[in-house]
Specification:
single chain, alpha+beta, SH3 type barrels, three-stranded antiparallel sheet, about 35% helix
């Protein structure tokens, strides 16, 4: 800029500064009781500005620049055998991918055991223990607790018809290896 350009700039700025100075001089008498307070505020603002500038340009300590918390690492959940078990569960009574066959009703068969025979005159009856607590007599033609029918009662044996086949149940099985035949005198036979 030329000297003439600088003069014109100064000529334009000086009247503005002069007007501002005149205005401040007009406030002085009104602000005189508050000089102490205004000086304190100016000092605090100046000190705050100095601390802010020093903090901005000072290097940060290492403990503030390092993360104390590690970043969360995403690990997809692996269900493995639990997922397979849940897939194969039949939650509503249906098997996945196949129709469920109607299950045959389970027949509850009461337990019974052939205990012996009783002869009264010309008739014989079988003595059957039912459910290990009750003993009952059954004759020929009677139906046992499991639905089998007694066909005949002999000395120490019964013949039972069950599901279309006859089965002989003996009280004592003489062919069993753990049974020894006693002789008439009560002594075991010679080997």
């Amino acid at each position: 800029m030329s000297a003439a350009g600088e003069q014109t700039l100064m000529e334009r700025v000086l009247p503005t500064l002069g007007a501002f100075s005149a205005r401040v001089n007009g406030w002085r008498p009104a602000l005189k009781p508050f000089y102490f307070h205004l000086t304190g505020v100016a000092l605090v603002c100046g000190l705050g500005a100095v601390v802010a500038v020093a903090t901005i340009f000072a290097p940060l300590p290492a403990n503030l620049t390092q993360d104390r918390w590690g970043l969360v690492q995403w690990q997809p959940y692996r269900a493995g055998p639990l997922r397979d078990e849940m897939i194969n569960m039949s939650l509503w009574g249906e098997t996945v991918g196949a129709k469920v066959e109607a299950a045959a009703p389970v027949k509850v068969v009461p337990k019974w055991r052939f205990v012996g025979t009783v002869t009264t005159g010309a008739s014989r009856v079988a003595v059957i223990e039912v459910d290990a607590s009750t003993t009952k007599r059954f004759g020929v033609g009677d139906v046992l607790p499991n639905g089998a029918r007694i066909e005949s009662v002999g000395p120490g044996e019964i013949v039972v018809a069950e599901e279309g086949t006859n089965r002989t149940i003996k009280l004592f099985d003489v062919t069993a290896p753990n049974v020894q035949n006693q002789a008439a005198d009560g002594k075991p036979p010679a080997k």
